[in-house]
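Predict structure. Chain length: 527.
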Amino acid sequence: MKEQILFAVISGFLAGVFARSFFPLGLAAVGFAALLAFASLIFAYIDESKRKSLIVIAVALLACAGGILRMNSAVLVGDPELTSRLNKEIIVEGVVSEEPDVRESNIRISLHADTLVVARPVREKPLRDVGAEATPKSEAFSNGASTTIPISAGILVVAPRDTSVKYGDRVRASGLLRIPESFETGEGRKFNYPEYLAKDGIGYELAFADVELLSSGGGNMVKKSAIWIKQKFLEGLGNSLGEPQAGLGGGLTVGAKRGLGKDLTGIFITVGLIHVVVLSGYNIMLVINGALKVFSRAPRLFKLFLTAFIAVSFALMTGGASSSVRAAVMAVIGVVGRATGRLYFASRVLSIVAFGMVLWNPFLLSFDIGFQLSVLATFGLIWFTPVFSARLQWITGKFALREIAASTLGTQLAVLPLLLYQNGQLPLFSLPANLLALIAIPPAMAASTIASLAGLIAEPVAPVIAFPAYLLLTYIIDVAKFFSSLPFASLGITAFSAWWMFGAYAVMFGCLVFIKKRAGRVEFPAV
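Prediction complete.
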């Protein structure tokens, strides 16, 4: 009964958040759900034979109402001072709330704006003839004093790439204020950009912006320290390796964004290897697995603390970004679940963690594909990987090939319907590409770390020390390039309804239940 109540709370709450994300449900829907829950409790009191089921239904309905209320409370409300100035040039001041996202043509700065600077006009003076010159009328306004208006809003500032700011800086930004808009991603798909930014509390965009540094030293010290460590790590890689090897090494180890560039990133997407470029739960899981093998004879409690320490270290090294936190948490759940063989327990913890993250930020559920992929990939790692492992005994266990094959199939199958719905890319050579590339990931991560340290403390000889990292990273890049060059490396799927995606998951999980029933409820062996 306790497990049923827990499932009812989690599923009901997530259903409420999901429904409110796409439909304007208000207090009327909340009241209706509460009324149905009350009716279920009354029938539970009357009909004792169905009491447990009716109580579970009542709990799910109340949780659904709670999900609607939580999503309603999270909807961003625009600042009236900014909204009245849309599509106009403005000047704002605020604090950089995240590590700036440096791209090929610009830099994107998440700004928590607290001040709007407004020029105050002065009384115009008559034109004075000075020889053949006169004081223009237009300067009468620009030479006036300015006044400030308090505001509170998240703004995405798009500035030139050479803009030098960092997390915690207080800046003044001027540019064209506008509302973010959805855009086409090809094959009839549309990306909901406004809601994607809303998950980070951003409701406005300041385009073509000029940014002026006012002061430094703000922000959370722990987060600043973690970002500093990451930047020093990347600096060391840059001193010891060239591109694109340094970019790949940064992506493998500290989740550096866009380290490979647009073209090479597209190649990794084509062959289904993009998950190794950005820091993911898989990368962290590899490090944890390696550490657990080194301390294989240590007490179980020590192993759990070691797993948590590695995951937290990765999350801090990447600046505590939500994506790295998700990856770290999901990796810990997947590794512990597989190592202990307690799949039901791991699934329960996964559900609770997902519930807690959505409770904290409801936008994650429907508008953050990183969160969705993390949950689905971890589910596949826990449940699908053992199924494949039991049927891949013909693959040798040397070099962890069987584990890589089973993990790849399990996670890729779990995320495939969502990926096809989002980007329409079906990589046909994902399995062989992953088998060949992933055997080099653990040594490449270790060699990249050594290369970074060498670049920081022994720069003159760093390229020599970094040569093993260069070979391993080049090998991974060449594997991706080879499979992407093959005919029909990836198939493009046209846009389709989300109902087809939900149907695919229903069939997939139905098959999993059928396989488990045939297995006589015996737990699958952990990989």
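Summary: Residues 51-74 form the longest helix (24 residues).
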